[in-house]
Amino acid sequence: MRSPSGIGVIDKSVMIMDALEAGPATLAQLVECTGLARPTVHRLASALVHHRFLARDVRGRYVIGSRMEELASAAGDDQLVSAAGPILLKLRDVTGESSQIFRRQGDARVCVASAERPIGLRDSIPVGTQLSMKAGSAAQVLLAWEDHERLVEGLQGARFTPTVLAGVRRRGWGESLGEREPGVASVSAPVRGPSGRVIAAVSISGPIERLSRQPGRKFAPAVVGAAHQLTELVRANPETELR
């Protein structure tokens, strides 16, 4: 058992999360494992569920929540970005359009790497830009393979529909026309970690006049190919997902 930090509420919360490393547990099992009072475990576990550090499974047991996965993914950003650089540059040169990588962070998606079209009209998305999870092909891709609860939540107020996300899952890529910004089209494909979970989206974006009204038909093979390349690099270096 690790030594306490002296901050009681944090130490007790960590004890609860440590207890769940072995798998799902009921409230009674958490009380037995941690030695904490039942009201204390219930209060802390409820707060951790609220912040998505814990969740409840179909049997009502406590399990590690999705926020832990998001933080683990964010910890691997530097490695992902390093691997992505040459792939984004090649994708930009092949398609002639700006290319980006997005990660989901809570209710937003964040551009963690980009290669902008050097000349002419372009869709400029600097690294660090936060965009909505309610519009755009990258948002579609980052949401399409989520669990049912987060899928339903993500669709509330979205500019795409369940049918659109079903198409993303079937094809393995998404496209958008003016969803995020009038006149802008995009195509995105998923990057997967060693476990198969979607950890990022590779995208190209630019004016509809160049990408056409069916950008996926024209550019999906190149975008999917870039996403597959990055997935293979991530799987060869599991720390990108798990650190």
TrEMBL record:
Q: Where is the HTH iclR-type domain?
A: 7-66
Q: Which residues form the IclR-ED domain?
A: 67-236
The answer to whether the entry has keyword Transcription regulation is yes
Please give the name of this protein.
Helix-turn-helix domain-containing protein
Q: Which domain of life is it from?
A: Bacteria
**Which PANTHER family does the UniProt entry name for this protein?**
HELIX-TURN-HELIX TRANSCRIPTIONAL REGULATOR, ICLR FAMILY, TRANSCRIPTIONAL REGULATORY PROTEIN
Q: One Pfam annotation, family name?
A: HTH_IclR
Record SUPFAM superfamilies? GAF domain-like, Winged helix' DNA-binding domain
Citing just one GO molecular function, the answer is: DNA binding
User: Record's InterPro entries?
Assistant: GAF-like_dom_sf (IPR029016), HTH_MetabolicPath_Reg (IPR050707), Tscrpt_reg_IclR_C (IPR014757), Tscrpt_reg_IclR_N (IPR005471), WH-like_DNA-bd_sf (IPR036388), WH_DNA-bd_sf (IPR036390)
Which Gene Ontology biological process is one annotated for this entry?
negative regulation of DNA-templated transcription
* Source organism (scientific name): Nesterenkonia alkaliphila
Give the record's keywords alphabetically.
Answer: DNA-binding, Transcription, Transcription regulation
